From TrEMBL:
Transmembrane segments: none annotated. It comes from the Bacteria. Pfam families: Por_Secre_tail (PF18962). This is Secretion system C-terminal sorting domain-containing protein. The keyword Signal applies. Keywords: Signal. Residues 1-21 form the signal peptide. It comes from Chryseobacterium shigense. Residues 263-331 form the Secretion system C-terminal sorting domain.
Amino acid sequence: MKKYLLSILFISSLIFSQALHTENFENYSIGAFNNWTIINYSSGTPNIPAAYRPPVLQVSQGNGGQGKILKITTPNNQFMDRYEIKNTGNLGTLWSGRQSGNNVLRVKFQLYTKDIKSDITIGLYDSQKRMIVGLTIGLEGRIIDGYARATKKVDNTVDYYKVSLLNNQFNPPNVLQDIVYTYDYDTGKVTIEGPYGIGVLDAANTQYNPIPNQEIFEHRMYFSFLSGVQNGVMLLDNYQIEALPFSALSTIDHKSEDQTFKIYPNPSNDYINVSYPNIKNIQFLQIFDMNGRLIDNPVASSKINISGLPTGNFILKVLTKDGNIFTEKFIKK
């Protein structure tokens, strides 16, 4: 089981997240995994015709110290069809019974999709099977786009806000990528973060309005097959859905797992020096504000010019060629 690179610190014992569903697959034996339901989308039932070949779910041993993971195999199929995978827990009931004030729902998991041969949709849905927030995966896992249900400001019609999370550029073999998305029930604000992109939909968006108070019913995965596709594999781990207060989101302290990743001087008003001697094969750097908006893509260097940034708190994110992500907070004076 891969370690997370973000540590969450709470400023008060009254501020905490509430786990609604969590699964790291460590408590299962290697082999078939039957705790999640596979449904044939055409019939709407688990009664899948014998001639059809739905996805196969197995608990598998990950590489190195990864621990156990869920392996989803899409067999060679003779028929065009669609399958739905969902956990057996009733998310809608759990959400309705959440503790008072925990009105932000956060979904986070790790996945590897490069070998998949079908189109996949993963997300949070209402009872009418309309996605609230989630992602789509295509082109054998090399393109990942985040989506959030919203209304267009120009005519108030319902549409989907889209953000590119992985665009056919880099997906190292057998590396699990971190995916996180949140939905604020009170305001409709959505954040979606993937390996190489982050999107925020809130009232400040110039094209879309977020939709608050949407019905939270279930978290699902959809696999769409074309006839004659070859076998493909998707890996999933550290799957967690939680309810938390909005204030808890602002208490995330982004820390590098490798404590040799340092920023100084901090605070600074012009330049920051960045030291990361033990981080190898750096792909690129990104700077985000505390609302999750991408502000800059500085050149990977030991000295970064921040004079053009407004006063405030920011996150420097380092992404490596082997899929690791390191983050550290700094302050612009």
